Amino acid sequence: PYDILVVGGGPAGASAAIYAARKGIRTGIVAERFGGQVLDTMTIENFISVKNTEGPKFATSLEEHVKDYEIDIMNLQRVKGLEKNDGMFEVELDNGGVLKSKSAIISTGARWRQIGVPGEEEFKNKGVAYCPHCDGPLFEGKDVAVIGGGNSGVEAAIDLAGIVQNVTVLEFADTLKADDVLQERLNSLPNVTVKTNAQTTEITGEDNVNGITYIDRASGQEQHIGLEGVFVQIGLVPNTEWLDEDVETNKIGEIITDKKGSTNVPGLFAAGDVTDSPHNQIIISMGDGANASLGAFDYLIRN
Ligand code: FAD
């Protein structure tokens, strides 16, 4: 069996595996897609000490760093279940295989909820964006829309208003759902327009995004706004569907961890976007992975 088995091969998992291997213990990492969300990223400019890089390049260096250690890498393997029997974790793979480990770290990440309208897929990274911290500066001085009037949408709009020319917030319901204090802040900004009752129907463009079409649900009329960027902010979904109920999660399915990265199950840790940590970034996920790994090592020497 492994001493530490890491489930998920994004920034959090890679960091957890390296920290574990550096303790000289048996370490494995299993991932559906080694690299994780970074593979879908164009430019990365906020990984401190690396001024500018590209996602796939970053993913390759993650993998190279992991391969520098004695770590069993099981890529292109989906995990479908995890159980603890007689103090040993059993991780079940889609292909029927079972991996055993004394402790485990879950770092299966998250995915942005998609709006699912024509143009979204086609213009991804060509004007359609999901992360204002990552991609906001690419739209400096331009007009953008934010789809979603919940906390994340309104926070994104406030953030973007300081960078771009104009922000239009499109909310499907008849009111914004964000906290009052955020709404007040939003309403105080001169370059933000809020459209409620707005059902987005299409993101338009040629090579890049050139506008957004929505139906004003109050009048039934179709409207079109010319702009260069669309931030989809309708929620982030943690990849925890495969996990059973014994592991404590919050109401949106994110794994609840303590300061050591420990879950409610002794010996089971979690790190990165899959947890209830408030901000999802590469640098944060990596720190989280290191922290969970040291937490797991601490657990192993006590048990
Ligand atoms: P992920 O990167 O999501 O990795 C999860 C891993 O788990 C993957 O290997 C996946 O295949 C695996 N996995 C999932 N389910 C299973 C399963 N059932 N079985 C086995 N394996 C599984 N952050 C920045 O800091 N800067 C940026 O510029 C930036 N730009 C971004 C741009 C885009 C388009 C996106 C989508 C995100 C961006 N982010 C950026 C956010 C950043 O990518 C994430 O915060 C980070 O990747 C989270 O790392 P993670 O290891 O927690 O999860």
UniProtKB/TrEMBL annotation:
Portion held of the full protein: 208 to 510 of 510
Residues given in the record as FAD binding sites: 3-18, 263-273
First-tier enzyme category under EC: translocase
Keywords: Disulfide bond, FAD, Flavoprotein, NAD, NADP, Oxidoreductase, Redox-active center, Ubiquinone
The protein's name in its UniProt record: NADH dehydrogenase
UniProt keyword annotation of Cell inner membrane present: no
Transmembrane parts of this sequence: none
Disulfide bonds: 131-134
Ranges where the FAD/NAD(P)-binding domain occurs: 2-278
Function: Transfer of electrons from NADH to the respiratory chain. The immediate electron acceptor for the enzyme is believed to be ubiquinone.
Cofactor names: FAD
